[in-house]
Amino acid sequence: MKIATFNVNGINGRLPILLRWLKESKPDIVCLQELKAPDDKFPEEAIENAGYHVIWHGQPRWNGVAILSRNAEPVETARALPGDPRDHQSRYIEAAIDGILVACLYLPNGNPAPGPKFDYKLKWFERLTAHAKDLLESGAPVVLAGDYNVMPTELDVYAPERWEDDALFRPEVRGAFAALRDQGWTDAIRKLHPKERIYTFWKYWRNAFQRDAGLRIDHFLLSPKLAKRLKACGVDRDVRGWDKSSDHAPVWIELKD
Protein backbone atom coordinates (compact mmCIF):
# COMPACT_ATOMS: atom_id res chain seq x y z
CA MET A 1 0.00 0.00 0.00
CA LYS A 2 1.30 3.42 -0.97
CA ILE A 3 0.16 6.46 1.03
CA ALA A 4 1.12 10.01 0.07
CA THR A 5 0.73 13.53 1.42
CA PHE A 6 0.82 16.64 -0.78
CA ASN A 7 0.28 20.29 0.07
CA VAL A 8 -1.11 21.40 -3.31
CA ASN A 9 -1.15 25.14 -2.54
CA GLY A 10 -4.49 25.70 -4.29
CA ILE A 11 -6.21 22.64 -5.71
CA ASN A 12 -8.00 24.30 -8.62
CA GLY A 13 -4.99 26.27 -9.81
CA ARG A 14 -2.75 23.19 -9.48
CA LEU A 15 -5.28 20.61 -10.67
CA PRO A 16 -3.30 19.64 -13.82
CA ILE A 17 -0.23 19.09 -11.61
CA LEU A 18 -2.20 16.94 -9.16
CA LEU A 19 -3.83 14.84 -11.87
CA ARG A 20 -0.53 14.28 -13.68
CA TRP A 21 1.14 13.21 -10.45
CA LEU A 22 -1.73 10.86 -9.51
CA LYS A 23 -1.50 9.21 -12.93
CA GLU A 24 2.26 8.77 -12.74
CA SER A 25 2.67 7.86 -9.07
CA LYS A 26 -0.56 5.90 -8.49
CA PRO A 27 -0.73 6.21 -4.68
CA ASP A 28 -3.47 4.19 -3.00
CA ILE A 29 -4.29 6.89 -0.42
CA VAL A 30 -3.52 10.61 -0.63
CA CYS A 31 -3.78 13.37 1.98
CA LEU A 32 -4.05 16.86 0.49
CA GLN A 33 -3.58 20.18 2.27
CA GLU A 34 -4.09 23.85 1.50
CA LEU A 35 -6.96 23.36 -0.92
CA LYS A 36 -7.79 27.10 -0.88
CA ALA A 37 -11.31 26.33 -2.11
CA PRO A 38 -14.77 26.25 -0.50
CA ASP A 39 -16.58 22.93 -0.43
CA ASP A 40 -18.71 23.72 -3.48
CA LYS A 41 -15.64 24.56 -5.59
CA PHE A 42 -13.76 21.34 -4.88
CA PRO A 43 -13.07 19.48 -8.19
CA GLU A 44 -14.81 16.27 -7.13
CA GLU A 45 -15.61 15.10 -10.66
CA ALA A 46 -12.01 15.44 -11.86
CA ILE A 47 -10.71 13.52 -8.84
CA GLU A 48 -13.26 10.76 -9.30
CA ASN A 49 -12.48 10.54 -13.02
CA ALA A 50 -8.85 10.01 -12.03
CA GLY A 51 -9.99 6.88 -10.17
CA TYR A 52 -10.29 8.11 -6.59
CA HIS A 53 -12.98 8.27 -3.95
CA VAL A 54 -12.63 11.50 -2.00
CA ILE A 55 -13.77 13.35 1.10
CA TRP A 56 -12.83 16.95 1.80
CA HIS A 57 -13.26 19.91 4.11
CA GLY A 58 -12.74 23.14 2.22
CA GLN A 59 -12.52 26.81 3.09
CA PRO A 60 -12.54 29.92 0.88
CA ARG A 61 -9.09 31.32 0.07
CA TRP A 62 -7.17 29.46 2.79
CA ASN A 63 -6.62 26.06 4.40
CA GLY A 64 -8.66 23.02 3.37
CA VAL A 65 -7.86 19.29 3.58
CA ALA A 66 -8.90 16.17 1.67
CA ILE A 67 -8.37 12.41 1.66
CA LEU A 68 -8.35 10.40 -1.59
CA SER A 69 -8.57 6.61 -1.86
CA ARG A 70 -8.05 4.54 -5.01
CA ASN A 71 -9.65 1.37 -3.65
CA ALA A 72 -11.97 1.40 -0.62
CA GLU A 73 -14.19 4.41 -0.11
CA PRO A 74 -13.07 6.55 2.88
CA VAL A 75 -15.35 6.32 5.91
CA GLU A 76 -15.11 9.74 7.53
CA THR A 77 -14.50 9.63 11.28
CA ALA A 78 -13.78 13.32 11.93
CA ARG A 79 -13.64 16.58 9.98
CA ALA A 80 -12.26 18.82 12.71
CA LEU A 81 -9.64 18.46 15.40
CA PRO A 82 -11.33 17.98 18.79
CA GLY A 83 -10.77 20.36 21.66
CA ASP A 84 -12.05 23.76 20.52
CA PRO A 85 -15.55 24.07 18.99
CA ARG A 86 -14.82 27.74 18.24
CA ASP A 87 -12.07 26.83 15.80
CA HIS A 88 -13.57 26.82 12.30
CA GLN A 89 -10.36 26.62 10.27
CA SER A 90 -10.36 23.63 7.90
CA ARG A 91 -7.16 21.92 8.98
CA TYR A 92 -8.04 18.33 9.88
CA ILE A 93 -9.94 15.42 8.39
CA GLU A 94 -9.85 11.74 9.37
CA ALA A 95 -11.13 8.55 7.76
CA ALA A 96 -10.98 4.76 8.01
CA ILE A 97 -9.67 3.15 4.81
CA ASP A 98 -8.78 -0.50 4.27
CA GLY A 99 -8.34 -1.12 7.99
CA ILE A 100 -6.17 1.96 8.59
CA LEU A 101 -7.16 5.20 10.29
CA VAL A 102 -5.83 8.06 8.17
CA ALA A 103 -5.54 11.53 9.69
CA CYS A 104 -4.79 14.36 7.27
CA LEU A 105 -3.62 17.56 8.94
CA TYR A 106 -2.47 21.06 8.05
CA LEU A 107 -0.86 22.56 11.13
CA PRO A 108 -0.86 26.38 11.38
CA ASN A 109 2.18 28.30 10.17
CA GLY A 110 2.30 30.48 13.28
CA ASN A 111 4.20 33.50 11.94
CA PRO A 112 4.89 36.11 13.07
CA ALA A 113 6.25 34.74 16.32
CA PRO A 114 5.65 35.63 19.04
CA GLY A 115 2.06 36.75 18.56
CA PRO A 116 -1.55 35.54 18.32
CA LYS A 117 -0.86 33.31 15.30
CA PHE A 118 2.00 31.62 17.12
CA ASP A 119 -0.19 31.13 20.20
CA TYR A 120 -2.86 29.54 17.98
CA LYS A 121 -0.25 27.20 16.51
CA LEU A 122 0.87 26.00 19.94
CA LYS A 123 -2.74 25.51 21.09
CA TRP A 124 -3.51 23.56 17.92
CA PHE A 125 -0.44 21.42 18.56
CA GLU A 126 -1.68 20.72 22.09
CA ARG A 127 -5.05 19.60 20.74
CA LEU A 128 -3.37 17.41 18.12
CA THR A 129 -1.17 15.81 20.77
CA ALA A 130 -4.17 15.06 23.00
CA HIS A 131 -6.15 13.54 20.13
CA ALA A 132 -3.13 11.58 18.90
CA LYS A 133 -2.77 10.07 22.37
CA ASP A 134 -6.36 8.84 22.21
CA LEU A 135 -5.77 7.37 18.74
CA LEU A 136 -2.60 5.66 19.89
CA GLU A 137 -4.29 4.19 22.95
CA SER A 138 -7.05 2.76 20.77
CA GLY A 139 -4.53 0.27 19.39
CA ALA A 140 -5.67 0.90 15.83
CA PRO A 141 -3.18 1.23 12.96
CA VAL A 142 -2.99 5.00 12.48
CA VAL A 143 -1.09 7.38 10.22
CA LEU A 144 -0.85 11.11 10.95
CA ALA A 145 0.09 12.66 7.61
CA GLY A 146 0.35 16.19 6.36
CA ASP A 147 2.00 19.57 6.47
CA TYR A 148 3.12 20.07 10.07
CA ASN A 149 4.90 23.39 9.43
CA VAL A 150 7.72 22.13 11.65
CA MET A 151 11.36 21.35 10.95
CA PRO A 152 12.06 18.87 13.79
CA THR A 153 15.87 19.12 13.74
CA GLU A 154 18.71 21.06 12.15
CA LEU A 155 19.00 18.25 9.61
CA ASP A 156 15.58 19.29 8.28
CA VAL A 157 16.47 22.86 7.25
CA TYR A 158 19.07 24.13 4.80
CA ALA A 159 20.38 26.98 7.00
CA PRO A 160 19.32 26.48 10.63
CA GLU A 161 20.89 29.74 11.82
CA ARG A 162 18.54 31.74 9.57
CA TRP A 163 15.41 30.15 11.01
CA GLU A 164 15.97 30.44 14.75
CA ASP A 165 13.17 33.00 15.27
CA ASP A 166 10.75 31.53 12.72
CA ALA A 167 7.56 29.86 13.97
CA LEU A 168 8.47 26.70 12.04
CA PHE A 169 11.73 26.26 13.93
CA ARG A 170 11.34 27.89 17.33
CA PRO A 171 12.20 25.65 20.30
CA GLU A 172 8.58 25.57 21.51
CA VAL A 173 7.41 24.11 18.19
CA ARG A 174 10.23 21.62 17.84
CA GLY A 175 9.57 20.57 21.43
CA ALA A 176 5.87 20.08 20.69
CA PHE A 177 6.70 17.86 17.71
CA ALA A 178 9.14 15.84 19.83
CA ALA A 179 6.53 15.41 22.57
CA LEU A 180 4.00 14.19 20.02
CA ARG A 181 6.45 11.76 18.45
CA ASP A 182 7.59 10.48 21.84
CA GLN A 183 4.08 9.24 22.62
CA GLY A 184 5.09 6.25 20.51
CA TRP A 185 4.86 7.48 16.92
CA THR A 186 7.49 6.73 14.27
CA ASP A 187 8.72 9.46 11.94
CA ALA A 188 8.72 7.42 8.71
CA ILE A 189 11.38 9.39 6.84
CA ARG A 190 13.79 9.37 9.79
CA LYS A 191 13.13 5.67 10.45
CA LEU A 192 14.51 4.71 7.04
CA HIS A 193 16.77 7.71 6.39
CA PRO A 194 18.12 8.74 9.81
CA LYS A 195 21.10 10.80 8.58
CA GLU A 196 20.01 11.95 5.12
CA ARG A 197 19.23 15.58 4.34
CA ILE A 198 15.74 15.38 2.82
CA TYR A 199 13.48 18.33 1.99
CA THR A 200 9.78 18.54 1.07
CA PHE A 201 9.37 22.32 0.57
CA TRP A 202 11.28 25.00 -1.31
CA LYS A 203 10.27 28.67 -1.47
CA TYR A 204 9.49 30.19 -4.85
CA TRP A 205 12.04 32.98 -4.65
CA ARG A 206 15.86 33.23 -4.77
CA ASN A 207 16.11 29.99 -6.79
CA ALA A 208 15.53 27.99 -3.61
CA PHE A 209 14.67 24.78 -5.46
CA GLN A 210 17.62 25.05 -7.84
CA ARG A 211 19.93 25.66 -4.86
CA ASP A 212 18.24 22.91 -2.85
CA ALA A 213 17.60 25.43 -0.08
CA GLY A 214 14.68 23.51 1.35
CA LEU A 215 12.83 22.45 4.46
CA ARG A 216 11.35 19.15 5.65
CA ILE A 217 7.94 20.15 6.99
CA ASP A 218 5.65 17.42 5.53
CA HIS A 219 5.69 14.34 7.75
CA PHE A 220 4.29 10.86 8.33
CA LEU A 221 3.92 9.72 11.93
CA LEU A 222 3.03 6.03 12.20
CA SER A 223 1.51 4.10 15.08
CA PRO A 224 3.44 0.98 16.19
CA LYS A 225 1.37 -1.41 14.08
CA LEU A 226 2.01 0.59 10.92
CA ALA A 227 5.66 1.25 11.76
CA LYS A 228 6.25 -2.50 11.61
CA ARG A 229 4.87 -2.53 8.06
CA LEU A 230 6.98 0.36 6.75
CA LYS A 231 9.17 -0.77 3.85
CA ALA A 232 9.92 2.39 1.83
CA CYS A 233 9.46 6.15 1.81
CA GLY A 234 10.52 9.10 -0.27
CA VAL A 235 9.84 12.50 -1.80
CA ASP A 236 8.75 13.05 -5.41
CA ARG A 237 10.95 16.13 -5.61
CA ASP A 238 10.83 16.29 -9.41
CA VAL A 239 7.16 17.38 -9.09
CA ARG A 240 8.37 20.58 -7.41
CA GLY A 241 10.25 21.37 -10.61
CA TRP A 242 7.21 21.07 -12.87
CA ASP A 243 5.88 24.30 -14.37
CA LYS A 244 3.40 26.08 -12.07
CA SER A 245 3.74 23.43 -9.37
CA SER A 246 3.21 23.80 -5.62
CA ASP A 247 6.09 24.90 -3.43
CA HIS A 248 5.76 21.51 -1.71
CA ALA A 249 6.62 18.12 -3.20
CA PRO A 250 4.58 14.97 -2.60
CA VAL A 251 5.88 12.71 0.17
CA TRP A 252 5.03 9.00 0.27
CA ILE A 253 5.42 5.78 2.23
CA GLU A 254 4.95 2.16 1.24
CA LEU A 255 3.56 -0.39 3.70
CA LYS A 256 3.80 -4.16 3.55
CA ASP A 257 0.42 -5.79 2.99
Automatic annotation (TrEMBL):
Under which main EC class is this enzyme filed?
hydrolase
Q: What is its EC number?
A: 3.1.11.2
Name the UniProt record assigns to this protein: Exodeoxyribonuclease III
Query: Site Transition state stabilizer: which residues?
Result: 149
Record-marked site positions (Important for catalytic activity): 218
Q: Which residues form the Endonuclease/exonuclease/phosphatase domain?
A: 4-248
Gene Ontology biological process terms in this record: DNA repair
* Catalytic residues of the enzyme: 106, 147, 248
Similarity annotation: Belongs to the DNA repair enzymes AP/ExoA family.
Alphabetical list of InterPro entries matching this protein: AP_endonuc_1, AP_endonuclease_F1_BS, Endo/exonu/phosph_ase_sf, Endo/exonuclease/phosphatase, ExoIII-like
MF terms in GO: DNA binding; double-stranded DNA 3'-5' DNA exonuclease activity; endonuclease activity; metal ion binding
Site note Interaction with DNA substrate, residues = 248
Alphabetized UniProt keyword annotations: Hydrolase, Magnesium, Manganese, Metal-binding
Where do the annotations place Mg(2+) binding? 7, 34, 147, 149, 247-248
Note describing how the cofactor binds: Probably binds two magnesium or manganese ions per subunit.
Required co-factor(s) are: Mg(2+); Mn(2+)
